[in-house]
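URGENT: need a sanity check before tomorrow's submission.

F., can you look over the Leucine-rich repeat-containing protein 3 record below? I want to be sure the sequence and structure line up before it goes out.
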Amino acid sequence: QAFFCLLLCIPWGSSCPPSCQCTERAGAKAVLCSSRHLEEIPKDIPRDAVFLKLDANSITRIPSNAFRHLSHLEEIDLSRNAIEKIDGAAFKGVAAGLRTLDLSSNCIRSIPKEALLALNAKLRLANNPWHCECALQEVLWEARLDPDSVRDITCHTAPREEYVGKPLLQVLDAGVNFCSVRQRTMDVAMFVAMFGWFAMVIVYVVCYVRHNREGACRHGDYLKPLPSTQAHAE
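Structure tokens as predicted:
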């Protein structure tokens, strides 16, 4: 915070989004857009920006390639917004150099794991209404989360009521595996589908055999009243 305060003291001479303030210190360029009532990410952010603060706005979505042209970004602060949806390619183009990504205190229930697992940045995901599921579990185990906020990732909803309101880390430490639950569900669904298909085949075979038997019986009944070839010979 002190660093950003210092950055505020030095204005930029280059272009800057009209709703933001752009500053520079020791070659580090920052775009400060905090509390500007923004509903989406500005599209005219300078390409050489290193720090981007978009906190305390009304942004609801991070679309694909939202930061693709900002390859110098090291820190993105999107905390305290109303973000509900994050596209899988939302952070494409900034994965290599990004050091910090703050998504805390939003409205995020789920997130494509590919959006975060490609990042080397320290992630802050606390204080969101998370739906505890396999993708979130994989993010927790594989992504680089801020250790100070990981315990504030809480299950707002979950497959079982007993997990609701508990920190995800606590649920996982108790031996719960949301990915195995999903796998079992898929296995059951596949079994039901195969059983249904097998039942349809059996019904078809039974109907086919019955139809052929009835046809044979009708054919036999038709031949009975006909005179035999032996009678004609006599």
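My own read: The radius of gyration is 32 Å. The first strand starts at residue 21 and ends at 25. If you see anything odd, call me.
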